[in-house]
Amino acid sequence: MNTPTSLIILVGSVTQTAMHMAHAIELSCTDLVDGIQVRPMDGLDIRMFEGDALYLICSSTHGSGDVPENARALYESLGNEPRFLGHVHYGVMALGDSSYGETFCNGGLRFDERLADLGAVRIGDVFRHDACAGTEADVEGAVWCRKWLSTALAPRATA
Ligand SMILES: Cc1cc2nc3c(=O)[nH]c(=O)nc-3n(C[C@H](O)[C@H](O)[C@H](O)COP(=O)(O)O)c2cc1C
Fold it and tell me: What is the best residue among 62, 127, 128 to mutate for testing ligand 1's pocket, by most ligand atoms within 8 Å of CB?
């Protein structure tokens, strides 16, 4: 397959921590890909994954381990309008707060589960940001993403 050279960052966020992180990534990773689009998830559905791009899910967690409200339509579309997404390569940046215990970072993890169920291929481990750890999501996230992109954009062996 051709290595995709554009990155689409899909952002699920309530209080904009995930959005700030996505914009920090956009600024710090421009030299690594041909283009970066930061897209709030509002109003999106599974058709978002039709393109030949690399996808990065950037989602916080709200409620009791739920995806943010602006991510709900996309998340539900992955369950209600399933189709094979074997062409999709994606990464996950999950934001949460470990004081919530078992639901820590569930928003991003829920997306990971749905995408994997549809045959999409996750690259690398899930990045987790813990709001109570005292670290800045945008700083940590940008560092992680540069490393992740070097793996994601490395030539892949064809099966
Ligand atoms: C009402 C509320 C509920 C939350 N529920 C969870 C949760 O169940 N699990 C979790 O890991 N974090 C939870 N969080 C923490 C947020 O995911 C975390 O603060 C995150 O950094 C917020 O990102 P955002 O500003 O992009 O929405 C919750 C936060 C709030 C305000």
Answer: 62
